[in-house]
Design brief:
Blueprint lengths: L2 E7 L9 H16 L3 E8 L2 E9 L1 H8 L5 E6 L1 E3 L3 H13 L7 E8 L8 H15 L4 E2 L6 E7 L4 E4 L3 E2 L11 E5 L5 H11 L3 E8 L6 H18 L2 E7 L1 H10 L5 H20 L3 E3 L12 H8 L6 E2 L7 H10 L3 H4 L6 H4 L11 H8 L4 H10 L2 E5 L7
Parallel strand pairs: 6-7, 6-8, 11-12, 11-14, 12-13, 14-15
Antiparallel strand pairs: 1-3, 1-4, 2-3, 4-10, 5-9, 8-9, 13-16
Helix pairs in contact: 3-4, 5-6, 7-8, 8-9, 8-14
Length: about 400
């Protein structure tokens, strides 16, 4: 075995009678995520998962673990037999790697195995005293330590570690149903998708492409964004809708000031039909209240009237700075800011309506063969499957 990782979860532990369902989903997600990068043994114990790296790169395994929703933190651990002297020896070996003169430290013990003869405080005292005897330059500080040696006493062995690497938290992907993400090439919608994944949603994505008004490079952006999201959500199916005919009709037959409102209504109609076909229970968008003309409360009200299924807006109360911070953290930001415009940006009117009236919008749509336009778009969708390892097809 090259390395052993202790994997913790948080919110899952509050799920009561449904807890086992969430635990099993997390374990399965870990196995699926790691199978492409290493040969690992993944197993559950009470409130913990363990990942033993049998063959492959442990660093790559750790990187993957810290991208799996449901995981709160990960620690590389050393194993000791259930004997105090053996625990002391392993503690010395592990702590030597982080010790330095004057280092303030403490030992913290959890005794899940109540049959172990010493209680947690006594284990901590004995191990701490042993470390001080071997490394007298250390300083005990139980309130503000610079380093903590943690000892977990479990059924068959003890686990010791000094590192705790944060994971993304949330719920395991797949426990909350399927959603269809309206994925543009911008900053916001990938973040909305990431936040939906964090709440356990299985994602598919739909992108509206208007070639030749938008370039092939704009489409490539969306493929790359989808691949980034797939690192957190496993395989993500991307549906590419050819939207040129609809945008041409809107430009020729409807008032320019209503173009964005009408466009978004057409997108929701198509997305709703596609969601029904794919078994998705909700649409997910990157709307942030008041950020642009189509995201005022009046615009959202008028646009959403065409959808009979819920529209989730994970970013609704976030400002742009908060959204950008998340985008940078999840590595979608450098892709989103590539200078290739999506269809909404290309067709943005000079003075878009910010408070559309439903009667006016419906009157503008009356000149369109809405059903025919929607059906034509649905009939010509291209589908691509994106994997978390960066591949797609």
């Amino acid at each position: 075995m090259k390395e052993l990782y202790l994997v913790r979860y948080g919110e899952i532990g509050l799920k009561g009678k449904n807890r086992k369902f969430f635990e099993n989903r997390l374990t399965n997600n870990i196995k699926k995520t790691l199978q492409a990068v290493a040969h690992c043994k993944v197993y559950q114990t009470h409130s913990r998962n363990f990942v033993a790296v049998l063959d492959g790169d442990p660093v790559q395994v750790l990187n993957r673990l810290t991208q799996i929703f449901g995981i709160v933190s990960v620690s590389p651990v050393a194993i000791a037999p259930l004997e105090v002297e053996a625990i002391k020896q392993v503690a010395l070996r592990e702590f030597t790697a982080v010790a330095k003169p004057g280092l303030r430290f403490k030992v913290k013990t959890r005794r899940a195995n109540k049959q172990f003869p010493l209680k947690s405080p006594e284990v901590s005292r004995q191990v701490g005293a042993y470390l001080l005897a071997k490394m007298p330059d250390l300083v005990v500080d139980v309130h503000t330590p610079e380093a903590v040696l943690e000892v977990e006493i479990r059924e068959n062995e003890a686990y010791l570690y000094t590192q705790t690497i944060p994971g993304p938290g949330g719920l395991p992907v797949g426990v909350a149903g399927k959603g269809l993400l309206l994925l543009s090439g911008g900053i916001d919608s990938p973040v909305a998708g990431w936040l939906a994944l964090k709440r356990g949603v299985t994602l598919e994505a739909v992108h509206f492409h208007s070639y030749p008004y938008t370039s092939e490079r704009a489409k490539e952006k969306v493929f790359d964004l989808c691949r980034e999201l797939a690192r957190y959500g496993g395989k993500i199916k991307l549906h590419l809708v050819h939207f040129t005919e609809i945008q041409t009709e809107l430009r020729l037959k409807t008032p320019e000031r209503l173009t964005i409102t009408l466009m978004r209504r057409m997108m929701l109609r198509i997305a709703e039909r596609l969601a029904e076909k794919q078994g998705a229970l909700a649409l997910i968008t990157g709307d942030s209240l008041g950020q642009v003309a189509s995201q005022t409360m009046e615009s959202i009200n008028v646009i959403e009237r065409v959808s009979a299924i819920p529209v989730f807006r994970p970013l609704i109360a976030l400002d742009k700075t908060e959204i950008v911070t998340i985008a940078q953290r999840i590595c979608t930001y450098p892709i989103s800011v590539r200078p290739y415009e999506d269809c909404c940006t290309v067709f943005l009117p000079e003075y878009p309506v910010t408070r559309p009236q439903l009667a006016e919008v419906e009157a503008a749509e009356a000149v369109l063969d809405v059903e025919s336009l929607v059906e034509n778009s649905l009939a010509n969708i291209e589908v691509f499957l994106n994997h978390g390892d960066g591949s797609g097809g």
